[in-house]
Structure formats: structure tokens, C-alpha cells
Design brief:
single chain; 269 residues; 78% helix
Length: 269
Amino acid sequence: MSVTQPRGATKRLLQFNSWFVYLFFYAPIILLVIFSFSDSPNVGVWGGFTLDWYSEFADSSQTRSALGNSIKVALVSTVISVVLGTMAALALERFTFRGKRVFDALLYLPIIIPDVTMAIMLLLFFSEAANILGFQKGFATIALSHVAFNISFVSVVVRARLAGMDQRLEEAAVDLYASRWKAFRHVTLPLIMPGIAGGALLALTLSLDDVVITQFVNGPGWTTLPVFVFGLIRKGVTPLINAVSVVMLVISTVLVLLSLITERARSDS
């Protein structure tokens, strides 16, 4: 079946539309990167090339602390989310149990509901828990909140991998006298590992970039880098914010590229 190629004005219109879409999406990012090297204290005014804003970012104890907090929360929440999300995906894809449909529907709620709604729910939950148990909000509440929404994303990615896997490979391992645990460890786990890695990178990226939920559940004197940037904006926009944003952009881009590479490897396997 032949495909009709666009000609003349239609082809030029499609090309213009493509370039316009790319420009619309990436022009702000390019400007952000360019003006993060501006020597002028005013955002949007080029005052010559400088690395002073990145030096200020590196020398600031507050930014280093916020970045360290973000990394700690992201790593802990990712590990917990990967374990629980993978277990949930295996339960939903491989087993039948009472309440499976309800559990499946509830698992997608963190993906569907707005961030503000989920943030308010978590704030109320941790406020009541703090009153009863007497703990302060901080690292634990932020990490658990990130786990709450990351489990769903990890589960979706791992389930997609499980759905495309030939279940007869597990059955063959069991027929060859392998226990259920050995069949999982030597057959299932290696096959779904690209999906687990992709889910982990996605969870890590979402945790590092989260602002709304973290803003609601963090405690006094404890913040992450995105919330720290949000606080800087309240005091006035300076090129320091551009530099911090570029650092976050680079970290997120690297994680997304690793996720895409993992997804490509998963598709090729």
C-alpha cells in the first residue's frame, strides 16, 4: 500500500509547523542556559560571560544542603518504590486474588489525581500521624510521599515488561525442577530487569523534580532543591536561579536519557 507524500505548500506548511513546535518547546530552555552565564545581576539582560553564578551555587551551603537532601530522598524513595512497585506488578500480572480489580484501580490513582490533591491528602495524614506519634515532618515524610506516587509509575513500567514476556519460560524452568524462587531469580528477574531499571530511573527523575507534594510535607529547616528554588523566586529572580535550574535540568536530562537507553535495550531484548 503506497503512502502519498505531501507536496508543495502542504509540505512547507508541515515543515514550518515542526520547526515552530520545536522552537516553542526548546527556546525557553536555550535562553535559560544562555542567561545562566550572564554577568548581569538582572535576569534577561546579557552582561558578558561569567561562571560566577555557578560558583555561588557551589559555594552556598544552603544549595549544597538542598541538593544533598534531594539526592537522599530520591535514592531512598526510588529503592522502596522499585521493590514495592515490582511486587505489585508481579501480583497483578501473575496472580488472581480477591479484590484484584480494586487494587489495580487504586494503584493508578496517584497518576490520575492532581498533585495538589495528593499533597493535601498526605499533609493531613502526616499531620494526624505527627500528633499521635509525636514526630516532626522532614526527610521521612518527604521520602514516604515520593514513594506513594512513585510506586504507581514503577508498577506500570514493570507490568508492561511482564506482559510482553513469554510465561512459558518460567513454566519450563519449573518443569526442570526449579523452585518458584529459583525460577524467578534466574529466569523472570533477568528478563524484567530492563523494565525495573527503567522504572527506577523514572522514579528517580520524578522524585528529584517534585515541588508541589514536597512543599506540603516538608518540615522546618529541611528542604529539597526544587523547593529551595521555589523559595528563591519569592525573594526575586536572579541569574543564580538560572544556574540552579540548569543544574537540575542537566540531572533530569541525564536520567531521562538513561531511561530511554534502558527502554531501547528492553525493546531490543
